[in-house]
Amino acid sequence: MPITSTSWLSNYITEYKNDEMFTPQNGVKPYWNKLLTEFDKLGYDGLMARQRDIDWLLSENGVTYNVYNDPQGMHRPWNLNVVPFLLRQAEWKTVENGLKQRAQLLNLVLKDIYGEGNLIKNGIVPHEVIHGHRGFLRQCSGIEYSTEKFLSIYAADLSRGTDGRLWVVNDRAEAPSGMGYALENRSTTNRILPEIYAKMNVKRLSGFFKEFNQMLVDASPIKKDNPNIAILTPGSHNETYFEHAYLSSFLGYPLVQGNDLVVRDGFVWMKSLKGLKQIDVILRRVDDAFTDPLELREDSQLGVAGLLDVVRRKNVSIINPVGSGVIENPGLIPFMPAIARYLLNEDLILPQIASWWCGQEQERKFVLNNLSQLVIKRIDRTNRESIHFAEFMTTQQLNDLKREIELTPYRFVAQEKISFSTAPNLVDGTIESRNLVTRTFCIASNNDYSVMPGGLVRVAPDRETIRVSNQRGGTSKDFWVLEDGPVKEDITRHWQKRSSLAASGLNDLPSLTAENLYWAGRYVGRTLVNARFLRMVMRQMALVQNKNEKPDSVKLQVLFKAVTHLTGTYPGFAEKSPDGKMAMEDPMQEMLSVILDKDRPGSLAHNLAMFGNSYYSIRNLWSSDMWRVFENIQKIWQSFEEGQDRSINKILKVLNQLITRLIAFMGLIEESILVQQGLLLYFIGLQLEQSMLTITKCRSLLTIKYEEQVEYDLLEYLLTSHESLNIYRYSYRSHIQLEHLLDLVVLDLEYPRSLTFMLNRIQKDIARLPHSRKDNNLSNYQKYVFDAFSKLRLAESSNLVKTKSETDYFREDLDELLENLSELLYRTSQSISSTYFNHTDKQNQLVTQSFPF
Amino acid sequence: MIFNVKHTTKYEYNAPVIYCHNIATLRPRESKGQQLLDYKIQITPQPAEISERIDYFGNYITRFSIQTEHIELKVTTKSKIVRDYAQFQDSFFSEVCRGITLDQTLLALRSTDPDILDARQYILESIFIGRADNNIRDYAEVSFKRNRSVFDAAFELMQRIYTDFQFVSGFTSISTPVAEVMKEKKGVCQDFAQIAIACIRSVGLPARYVSGYIETVPPKGKEKLVGADASHAWFSIFIPGFGWVDFDPTNNLIPMDQHIVVGWGRDYYDVPPLKGVVYGSGKSKLKVAVDIQAAM
């Protein structure tokens, strides 16, 4: 047992020979000791509190990692351990040089693979290692690039081997992830452990990101100061979507999906609100094969048809270029020393895992004879799921694997099984040892590569696990490279934003973002209005009768039907359902379904889910306060869904909570997003939705004349659900009358909840949209709103309340007005959609073919 | 022989297409015993841009995009070709070509001679022809024996496919996996070519897919119908020391002058005559007509 000055290690079980903290003589390395001493100052409770702070901050900031098919749902919280990973500058220097060399080398390999092919011709690399790799895209051969280097971003996974050196475990080049998480980890530890961070002389990351930005700017095929740069994401379901959104807001470049971009006249354009905007550089997180459905995977909906040809014409730069996935290739490892000598006349600085490529006869024999001692990978599938740890396999599995290898030997590489180093990790209140892998990042910079002084450290979930991956749970660490002396603060931390695209406002808003904002507004509005109405109906149910009884009062029946009209959950209370059942027979059951059935379009649960979707897909725009409220809404709803209590009181309580949070959320939106970032679209969506629902409400409650008492109650209900009862009383100080109600809720020009007010506001808002006309002619959607507004201005409440005769019960004028308004607003919405969010051109293949793998 | 080939592809859409990007592999490439004298491509509506390049395999690729709304896309190519391939017929039956056995071939393929290195790519799996299953392997091994001439084996394989498989159009599509064609023993020329390729690769030899045309000869005394000719596909096997030899399993013969090569690749995926991405909401109907006239 090594002696340490701290008590942190009393439960620390590890192989001392290969733990980050210990010297070969089993002493604690001085810089780790320094960290533990700092932990001493915090004490047990203090350190635990810091970990809780970290967890809290990450969840506040909505840092997530999506796990496909995860029963816990998408958007799993990101974990960061309070204990950082430490490396001294002296050792880092060697690693840095090794990484630069490897980046340089792989850059040349990539150029050669798609260029002259000398490595194969001269027998340095067997052709199957390249030609048999799925990532070798023949469509990309011969392309010339305007960037000096082929490989602009390179990431390497490093682990410390038993010889005490850091080894390269994986090469990542296609669309390396992790940089954003590393940055987020840093900004979190920096905030939560400020005093320790300062004392430990940690190298800063900001300089690296500045260079990263410069690299993107320099990548522009036509040299200009303000190239248009966009970040291409596969969408909000991608596992690292958080990072895409994070980098987008950090770097200030629009986050786009394939659908946002289009190829015309040999250039790539972004569909923005104003029109098409030419894009010079794409930082892409879409995999190679999916980037261009014209030339690559035909069934991809994530790419841009014709993109590769634009690259070929040097009219856009893709970072990294399409095709770079071929060097994510463990088949290259055995040949790397020879490649280094051939291309650079150097020896590799960083060691690699001993690897045997099965395409060679001797190596294959060795592998087949020693299979159970090895780790087997496919040359072109390096994700964890495709790695075979032979020691854990049954005889049957081993035989199957052998047969696989014999059938297509060139596809397999076997690697030595080695135990990588462990490092301390805070687990349930004690510090325990865990295996880890470090992802490091290089970017092209002038004639060389720059290395991020740090990286993303991923830690195995338990002591037994040697596979480390976020897909399987586990946690992450911040990576501190320690200088011997104090670190100079980088004063140019906030470099000049040079992108014209980011700053220039509404016109350049990607139309998909605009559409999501518009729908976020509509769904927020819909959820709020419906929640309020449902709350009011629930209250009446509680007062008037036993909840499961068939309603005997007319007013309840009217309310129930209004629920169906408002939510659009037909047949509902309005019509007989196809199986002949009437919802009226058991109103509570129908109400529960309208509230909770998330598979039923129009239900509250469904609206919440839709709201969540539009929210996630534009999360780069939201502030952390909004995130918190949003999370809170989700939690309230989730615990309601999971709970058993379906009593009216419980429902009322949940609706109350939900309504309060929604209002808080709406307030935050208004102060967190700028109009030119798209807030305008949100407002238009919100106001349109609220207007439409007000119309529906009035139509279902007011157009039929009922007996006096019923009518009075209905008026009151409407005012209640519209949150206007107090204002009504204040304004009219009288018995509720339809005429006054119409004046207030429908015709008032000053009252923000009145229909006329809302339409007036929509009118002003849409006038600011890029295609609105300011001259003598209005655009279509402007005409519809103007028409609706005028109809309201010309209406008179004293006429609207009338029926044809005393005995007639139908208020025809009112109904006609509302029907007209409803139609006009529907057309407005259609016209706005087709003018600004035209994604209706579905992408089809001329010849339908499925991609076999 | 000099041929005039007219190839028309027409897509009719039932809803307007806003724009489209397309790739055509229609211009006949340079190949052994064949020369292109003249070539024209005509596209309606007029493409906003059109460009041509040579792909990885040496085929001509025409890329174009149409940015005007349309409900019909028509691509017509007219090629004038000298085909003088029959002259090589005797060489296939020469000792250089026939004399090499499977074992000798496999050994010769280890060389890093540029021609052989290039040919070796066609041993590997490709997009449409994955790793052979046992059915294919077994089928191949009936013909391919260690000490048997590779040429003879390939010739026999072609004959067997011709006899065992039924030509049924419409039964398969380009997405039908080779394994299924093998099971059903039905298909069209491209299926037969791909079956042969899968078999040849399963024994470790290079085989490629050839896309082209075939001139049909009308029954005696009858006029040839316009458009009766067809796009066609066959396979080619690499024999070290000799080169590539074409076989047509659909017609059970080694192509001569009636076959016209357009392009080749690892399988159909590499050389589709016309493909594209279309933006619009409708469905399409395809009509293809090929007309080959021997010119004087």
UniProtKB/TrEMBL annotation, chain A:
Residues 84-460 form the Circularly permuted ATP-grasp type domain. InterPro entries: ATP-dep_Glu-Cys_Ligase-2, CP_ATPgrasp_2, DUF403. Gene3D superfamilies: 3.30.1490.270, 3.40.50.11290. PANTHER family: BLR2978 PROTEIN (PTHR34595:SF2), BLR5612 PROTEIN (PTHR34595). It comes from the Bacteria. This is Uncharacterized conserved protein, circularly permuted ATPgrasp superfamily. Pfam families: Alpha-E (PF04168), CP_ATPgrasp_2 (PF14403). It comes from Arenibacter palladensis. Residues 509-837 form the DUF403 domain.
From TrEMBL, chain B:
Gene3D superfamilies: 3.10.620.30. Signal peptide: none annotated. Residues 181-251 form the Transglutaminase-like domain. GO terms for biological process: proteolysis. Pfam families: Bact_transglu_N (PF08379), Transglut_core (PF01841). The keyword Hydrolase applies. The keyword Nucleus does not apply. GO terms for molecular function: peptidase activity. Keywords: Hydrolase, Protease. PANTHER family: BLR2979 PROTEIN, BLR5614 PROTEIN-RELATED. This is Transglutaminase-like enzyme, putative cysteine protease.
